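User: Could you write out the 3D structure of this protein bound to guanosine-5'-monophosphate? I've included everything you need below.
Assistant: Certainly. Input first, then the structure.
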Amino acid sequence: MPETIFSKIIRRELPADVVYEDDELMAFRDINPQAPVHVLVVPRADIATVNDILPGQAELIGKMVLAAQQIAADEGIADDGYRLVINCNRHGCQEVFHLHLHLIGGKQLRGISR
Ligand code: 5GP
């Protein structure tokens, strides 16, 4: 997988506002937030897109969702709600080719089809 800006953040070669990390994941605030809370949950493993997730990584993907759940609680947005999004490739408007889960909330979001 080609080097991305997120690999450099994971290796602490570039700064980021980190809100959570463990052996497998790092979560940091999006540099261009779309809502009051906009956090990216990123696996340390080199996975470029959803298309590249292997069956053996199912638990890792579940941990990404559970980390987002915990961060939402920590940010105080769990009860009001939030959105979890993973963009994939061109039609999904993926810009950074290191898998990441967007946690977006802190305001009323528009319906996905509106
Ligand atoms: P994508 O479109 O790939 O799903 O989302 C990439 C996200 O990464 C965008 O929301 C963009 O604002 C964010 N982003 C791009 N470069 C950086 C960076 O250097 N630092 C941080 N924290 N976020 C970034």
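The beta strands are 18-21, 25-29, 37-43, 82-85, 101-105.
User: Perfect, thank you.
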